[in-house]
Amino acid sequence: MPERKITALLEQLEQHSRKRAHQQTVTLPIDREDMVRLQALAEVYGMDIVELTPILLHAILTDIEAHMPYKAGKRVIRVEDDEPIYEDIGPTPRYLEAKRKHEKVCA
User: Fold this and answer.
1) Could you tell me if 71 and 89 are in contact, meaning their C-beta atoms sit under 8 angstroms apart?
2) Among 14, 17, 25, 51, which has the minimal tally of Cβ within 10 Å of its Cβ?
């Protein structure tokens, strides 16, 4: 095997190891219809549900974070390009605060 393939393989193994070290196991109830969907997706992509579910959950949570609504308050927090930027009174600031709190606990 050429050296770059070995290097790539070792990096892939290291990434997998780091990823597994940060995983936690949880047990939670799931709707029967959603279980069927998971089983079908897992079958189509040749994966186990235990492997597929964290991938789906990560993608969904990333998308939710990206689409959290901004709700402008009345207080100006800064000015950019002569335009006032108002504080966000929507769910995003509360979410980010809760996320930081839980990151400290899980660290």
Assistant:
1) yes
2) 25
DSSP state of 90: S
The residue written with tokens 């597929």 in the block is 52
- The phi, psi pair for 97, rounded to 5°, reads -65, -45
Distance, in Å, from the CA atom of 104 to the CA atom of 81, rounded to the nearest integer, reads: 35
pTM over 0.85: no
Q: What angle is formed at CA 45 by the lines to CA 39 and CA 46, rounded to 5 degrees?
A: 80
Q: State how far the Cα of 61 lies from the Cα of 76, in Å rounded to an integer.
A: 29
Q: Which residues contact 45 (CB under 8 A, 6 or more apart)?
A: 52
Q: How confident is the model at residue 3 (pLDDT cuts 50, 70, 90)?
A: confident
CA dist 99 and 105 (Å) reads 10
> Per residue in 58-82, pLDDT tens?
999 999 999 999 999 999 999 999 9
